[in-house]
Design goal:
The protein is an alpha/beta fold. The chain has 10 helices and 10 strands. Strands 6-7-8-3-9-10 form a 6-stranded mixed beta sheet, sandwiched between helices. Strands 1-2 form a two-stranded antiparallel ribbon.
Length: 246
């Protein structure tokens, strides 16, 4: 992925297996979020392709990628702050609804049914992420950790096969990070695949099945957590010095 003369992703080859938690780590500016933007249709790759579940998805519109089963969260929480927690999740559920403006305006039966189902699904997902007790509160009034979980619930409402989490632990306290780790594992246990960007290495090492490391847009390591943790190139990328330097 190039932006003018800047190469943000260079020759990257990743394969993520169904049902695993795969972490993408690296120093700031390594190209991790650019990878998310390419996968979800924000950017079309300058070269190469993105395949998902038997479909080539590079170049598709974001809504089309979502309908195929890919959802994401963001580094900075993006919620509809004046809507309730339940309403935020219902927006996610709308991704698969067939009712358009006319059906909603006329109050047609299938629109009422979809709205009823959407409300029930929102309640179920808010229970799942642990925010149902704040269901009718405005998103802007929720504590930061609850806003993070609400954003995950909204992404889950699109019924994704692949969930991309962009630094979900950012700004969380230690107790919230432990709860988040448990939540990500439970998401995986529902049969979904998780692609994770995260700077908290204890969280990454604690939940990831495999890890890939980027540095200046290139993959410098990939493997099991223990393999990556002890990789000399990874240590150098993070510390800015050779691994054996005194």
């Amino acid at each position: 992925m190039r932006f003018g003369g800047v190469v943000a992703i260079n020759g990257l080859d990743l394969t993520i297996n169904q049902g695993e938690i795969f972490a993408l780590i690296g120093p700031n500016g390594a190209g991790k979020t650019t990878v998310f933007n390419v996968v979800t249709g924000v950017y079309r790759p300058t070269e190469g392709s993105v395949g998902f579940s038997g479909h080539r998805i590079d170049g598709k519109k974001r809504f089309a990628v979502t309908k195929l089963g890919v959802a994401r969260t963001f580094q900075n929480v993006r919620l509809f702050h004046n809507m309730t927690a339940r309403e935020n999740v219902m927006v996610g559920a709308d991704a698969h609804h067939r009712t358009g403006f006319v059906g909603a305006a006329l109050g047609l039966p299938w629109h009422r049914r979809e709205e009823r189902d959407g409300r029930a699904k929102a309640k179920e997902l808010l229970d799942f992420v642990g925010v149902s007790h704040r269901m009718e509160e405005s998103a802007k009034n929720l504590p930061y950790g609850d806003q993070r979980r609400l954003e995950i619930a909204r992404a889950l409402a699109t019924d994704p096969k692949l969930l991309l989490l962009d630094e979900p632990a950012a700004g969380m306290n230690p107790a919230e990070k432990i709860e988040l780790q448990d939540l990500i594992k439970r998401i995986r246990d529902t049969g979904r695949t998780v692609l994770l960007i995260e700077h908290d290495m204890s969280l990454v090492m604690g939940i990831s099945d495999r890890i890939a490391v980027l540095d200046f847009g290139q993959k410098i390591a990939e493997g099991l957590p223990a393999e990556v943790q002890n990789n000399a190139r990874v240590i150098e990328a993070y510390l800015g010095a050779p691994a054996d330097a005194s």
